[in-house]
Design brief:
Layout lengths: L6 E6 L2 H12 L2 H19 L5 E2 L7 H7 L5 E4 L5 E8 L3 E10 L1 H7 L6
Parallel strand pairs: 1-5
Antiparallel strand pairs: 2-3, 3-4, 4-5
Amino acid sequence: MKEEIRIKQVAFAEEATRNAFDKLKQGKFEDKNLYEFIDRAIDDLKENPFVGIKISKKLWPKEYAQKYKINNLWKYNLPNAWRLLYTMRGDSIKIIAVILEWLDHTSYSRKFGYRKK
């Protein structure tokens, strides 16, 4: 049986997140690097939305379920210990990786309860 081919896209959950991504490109050296890391991740997600690591539901921050109404959560490890968090939405025709946010390692650890606030 042939694998079904679906259109793969990447979107941002909020306009503010998209604007923050665009702003990185104009920022200082570290911001520009982060922009490049995320841009490369977006290319990877367009190729294969399942490239990240699926996060167990019991670990999800409550705010994601409330704010974004997610039913799956994925993590893409970026260089320098940054994490890109996304969810997937789709149907039989297309699949969209929806970027929720990116966090440095310390913020990620706090948000997911690995480190005290």
